[in-house]
Amino acid sequence: MRLPYFLAAALIFLVSAGLSLLAASYAVTAVEEASEFAVRRALDLKGHDWAEVESDGLRVVLTGTAQDEATRFSALTAAGTEVDTSRVIDDMEVAPTTQLAPPKFSAEILRNDSGISVIGLIPATQDRDALIERLRRLDADNVSDLMETADYPTPKGWDDALDFAIEALVRLPRAKISASPGLVKITAIADSRHEKERLEQELTRAAPPSLRIGLAISAPRPVITPFTLRYLIGAEGGQFDACSAQDEDARTAIIAAAQETGMTGPYSCTIGLGEPSPRWSEAAILSIRALAQIGQGSVTMSDADITLVAAMGTDPGTFDRVVGELETALPDVFALHAVLPEPEEDAPAGPPEFSATRSPEGLVQMRGRLGDETLRDMVDSFARAAFGSEQVYTATRIAPDLPADWPVRVLAGLEALAQLHNGVLTVTPDDVALSGVTHDPDTRAGITSLLSDKLGDAQEFNLSITYQAPPEPEDTLPDPEQCEEQIAQVQSSSKIAFEPGSATVAADSRDTVNQIAEILRDCGPIRMEIQGHTDSQGREEMNQQLSQARAQSILNELRGRRVPTSSYTAVGYGETQPISDNDTEEGREENRRIEFRLIRPEPVAATETGLEAMETDAEPTEDAVDTGAGDQ
């Protein structure tokens, strides 16, 4: 039986359609697998192993989380190199951007004779106008504002740092101050070593306890005008009235030459600028040795002028020989004036021609002879200006036939007398003699330089000046290091103890706290850190809390005893800083302690300049005073 034609045709059509569908399915699967494999390989080669690839017919779907937008775009580009970009479906995500770190706020303030300039990055919330106004109060003529702002919260410690920087600038007419949150670094120049020490102490006391400070205050070499040296040899040996040298080597050589010639007693030689010749020390050594060959007398060097005065009775032959050899040996720039006094004829003794006496209370009496009325008025006016109008008593008289240089000798002597605490000036036609007491060790050298300059070459003068340390002012605060030592002495005999497991000071330790409070009241505002320490028994977190509570308890005890504690801070260190072995009871007892530490300035490295110095993260260096603590 044969099938009808139309049924056979339909059957053939259905069989063909099924075979076509099956072939198409296999073809699509092959295309999907090939596309997915090609794209995955391309992504792996570019380092995008984070991306997932899924084929959906002719479409290639990319999923995954890219690190940033640039990485996502790179993955899309890599996929587009293998398949048509229209077939690539982007279902990738980009990781959320992390919050940007706030900038490092800092300000650098420079002050010199030209004015004040401030540069740096400050918070947008900073009252900029008020800051500039505070600086204008220091130098109204010229304040340059070169600051930038950033809209971020004000960091902790920024306001304290900026306030202290401006407060320090009040004391420093020439300085660079770098301020950043919690840190202020100061580079400045002081006029003298004493001024340097005073500034360091004042700035250290004034800084808040939470603020780290770095100090680099220098005292440059002074400019000595005129460059002066005066050396005398008498019956008791040699001594310097004044000594100047251009460097350490020159000073060492000059002092060695003086010691060879019998120098006795203490000496000093100021290193400074202004020497008339690099061969200054050579000329000084030759002059000192020449004086020693003559015997006794004095040699005075004022810049390039050298005056050698022999003692009365020196052998003329020896004098001529030594002077001739010295003139030949001296460097060309130096000029020698040699004086051999003639024997004095017998003459009746009489009063000095002019004298002035200054008492320790500052009263000045002037007696003796002056050439005319004009000179007397001039001397009286000069003395009242130098010593005070109410301090001067004048009893001089007019006398004719005085030397032509008499006014210069009298006025120069009075100017020198004004530098002494008390003393006596005697002026004669042949000599200016000054004796007295000074509280400044550099006064003798200054007076020598002054008289050498005013009196001129080949003029003799005699100084007998004694240095006495100035009395300490009654209201002077003790040195912070002394306070630290006194507290250590108190606790060496009686440590501070607490009730077991608490922050309450034991009753038998209250007398120790009273002694420490009395010391700190006398010390005034010093930067002090009160530290609490424990042994290692118990949990670390509990030890930390207990040490902090005990340090704070001591701070509260001091406040209760009316100790000004605004510059103090209390810090607990727990068991992190043992000073002895925690395996023994004796060691644990030593580790349970309260320490009083001065918060000292950090050294400022010479290589640090500008904003780099402010961003240094070094911790402050502190010297501890080891003190006791109570039982844990």
Can you walk through the features of this model?
The chain is of the alpha/beta class and 632 residues long. The strands form seven sheets. A seven-stranded mixed beta sheet has the order 8-7-6-9-10-11-28. A six-stranded mixed beta sheet has the order 21-20-19-22-23-24, covered by helices on one side. Helix 12 (480-493) runs antiparallel to helix 13 (510-523). The protein folds into five domains: 27-94, Histidine-containing Protein, Chain: A, CATH 3.30.1340; 106-218, hypothetical protein tt1634 (3-Layer(aba) Sandwich); 228-339, 3-Layer(aba) Sandwich (hypothetical protein tt1634); 354-467, 3-Layer(aba) Sandwich (hypothetical protein tt1634); 480-614, 2-Layer Sandwich (60s Ribosomal Protein L30, Chain: A). Strand 7 (115-123), helix 3 (128-138) and strand 8 form a beta-alpha-beta unit. Helix content is 37%, strand content 25%. The chain contains 16 helices and 28 strands.
What tags apply to this protein structure?
hypothetical protein tt1634, disordered C terminus, 632 residues, 5 domains, six-stranded mixed beta sheet, Histidine-containing Protein, Chain: A, alpha/beta, seven-stranded mixed beta sheet
